[in-house]
Amino acid sequence: MISEPERTLVSDLPRHVGKTVSVWGWVNTLRLQRTMQFVLVRDHTGMVQVTHRRGGGDDEVESRLERLTSESAVRVTGRVVENAAVKLNGLEIVPETVEIVGLAETPLPVDEHSGPDHRLDWRFLDIRKRSPARLLFTVQTTLEQAMREYAYAEGCTEMHTPKLMGTASETGAEVFRVGYFDRNAYLAQSPQFFKQMAIAAGIDRVFEVGPVFRAEPSFTSRHSTEFTGIDAEIAWISDVEEVMDFEERMLAHAMSRVADRHGEAIREEFGVEVVVPRTPFPRVTMAEAGKILHARGWDPDGVKEDLDPEGERTLAAHIEETTGHEFVFVTHYPVGLRPFYHMRAPGRPDLTLSFDLLWKGLEVTTGAQREHRHDVLLRQAAEKGMDTEPMRDYLNCFRYGCPPHGGFGVGLGRLLMVLLGLDSIREATFLFRGPNRLTP
Fold it and tell me: Nearest-CA neighbor of 377 among 190, 200, 151, 223?
């Protein structure tokens, strides 16, 4: 049995000048002239020109190059030659053998003129053909790895909580109902309750990366019905500041890793400079934010209780102008805007110890200190007119001694969207899911 030659990546070709190598990749461009055949072959590290003179070598090579189509998968074995006339990288491969391992049909169903929805229909091919799209997932890997790295260093235990729930969330809204044998189940819209159960189980610091489902009929550039959430919960805290401190240090660490490994590539492909944030991030209470925004012409009639996208962008612009910072924590949201399990501010029962984190005007995080006292939880649920029976298992966690704790959830897609300057979360997701999209 003849073994296949080892693969050489395009990025490694400068080290193999004068040697015979085997490059595996896709056909990017074909120029099949009368006397010469030029083929650009692309792998995930770059492109190289394959140059063959007709009639000057193996007829089988000429025949196979002639059969190629754009995006066909090939293995090309040949000698690496320096050629200053090749503008790509000054190198070319003179082929000895060409193997067509996957012939692409023609014409291709997607190209640079395709609209965004059509590109989503052919997402695998669109990603393969566009280097910025491929870079996105390399950056995503580093970002996620770095956040895990920080969480581990801070003593977090990584958990994998259920995504099927026997009851809906505390409000019953924005959840997907699915058939579960002889009854209904619901897809988890957050690992929140399960993280708190882990805290009650004596696991002091919890970290999770996993799918989150939101049945929101939203068609904005920042919403999706399924996304990857990065969640953390920490116990034995003295106040909510410890939670915000944890998150800002985690993000600063992750951004530093991304800048070190991919800063130059991101600048080249996306035209974005990766800025490693300094800590601490600015903090603005919701009341202070309202005053700042009112002075800038937002909500002139004073009727809005929460920040809308315009308010988020305006506040972020103000913070960047006054502090030079791209991030800002908005804190102390009114009780009416937050769930029953958020702890109330001391001396201000109308406010919660909660926060959102805005990055360049987009909300990327929601977090809070949780109420850990069983009697207070019951009272706060009653104030909101809630039936606590469906949440019995959750509430039981607080009946037998639960420490003060708090946490947050971050959307990975939103982080990537802001980091790379993308227009839509659809571009920051491998296979997007929205109200009108369940395929591919």
Answer: 200
